[in-house]
C-alpha cells in the first residue's frame, strides 16, 4: 500500500464553498460516524466490519469528527482529526458518500477540521492520501496541503518466514542467501 504524506501550508478555503456549514459531531451522531467510518474503511481496502461493538477498538474511536451539512441540515461529508500530540494533528478520515461526491463537500469539511486544529494550537496539521487518487491529491493541494513524502507499507502473513536454501558446508555463509 502506498500513501502520500501532506502537511498543511497556508489554509485556503475552496472557491466556491458549497452551500451549508460545518458542524462538530456529538454523541447523537455516533451511529452516523460509525457507519461512515465503516464505509470509508471499505472504500480504502481496510477491514470494513465497523459496528458499535467493534468501534471502541478501532482506529477511528479516538478522533474528533465534523460534518459538512447541506442547508437543510443533512450531513454530506465528514472529516476526523486526532487529538494533538507535540503540536501535531492528523486529519483522518475524510469521507463523502459516493452519491454526494463532486460537489465540494470534502474540501469544505477538510478546511473546517484543519481550521479547528489550527485554532486549537496545532503547529503541524498533516494527512495521508492515496497517491493514485488524483481527485483527493488535487483537492488537498488546492486547500493548502503540501506533499512531504510517499510511504510504502507491506503486509506479511503471520508466521511467514523468508525462503532460504540450505547452504553447502563448503560454501561461505554470505553466499547462501
Spell out the blueprint of helices and strands.
Elements: E1 2-8, E2 21-24, H1 30-43, H2 52-55, E3 64-69, E4 75-81, E5 88-95, H3 105-119, E6 124-129, H4 134-142, E7 145-152
Parallel strand pairs: 5-6
Antiparallel strand pairs: 1-6, 1-7, 2-3, 3-4, 4-5
3D structure, described in words:
With 177 residues, the protein is an alpha+beta fold. It has a single domain, classed as 3-Layer(aba) Sandwich (Aminopeptidase), CATH 3.40.630. The chain has four helices and seven strands. The chain has helices spanning 30-43, 52-55, 105-119, 134-142; strands spanning 2-8, 21-24, 64-69, 75-81, 88-95, 124-129, 145-152. The protein has a seven-stranded mixed β-sheet, sandwiched between helices. β5 (88-95), α3 (105-119) and β6 form a beta-alpha-beta unit. The longest helix is centred in the middle third of the chain and has 15 residues, at 105-119.
Low-confidence stretches: 171-177
**Quaternary assembly:** single chain
Q: Helix and strand string, N-terminal first?
A: EEHHEEEHEHE
- The CATH superfamily label reads Gcn5-related N-acetyltransferase (GNAT)
Structural class: alpha+beta
How would you characterize the largest beta sheet?
A: 7 strands, mixed
Query: Spatial order of the strands in the main sheet?
Result: 2-3-4-5-6-1-7
Which features would summarize this protein structure in a list?
Aminopeptidase; 4 helices; disordered C terminus
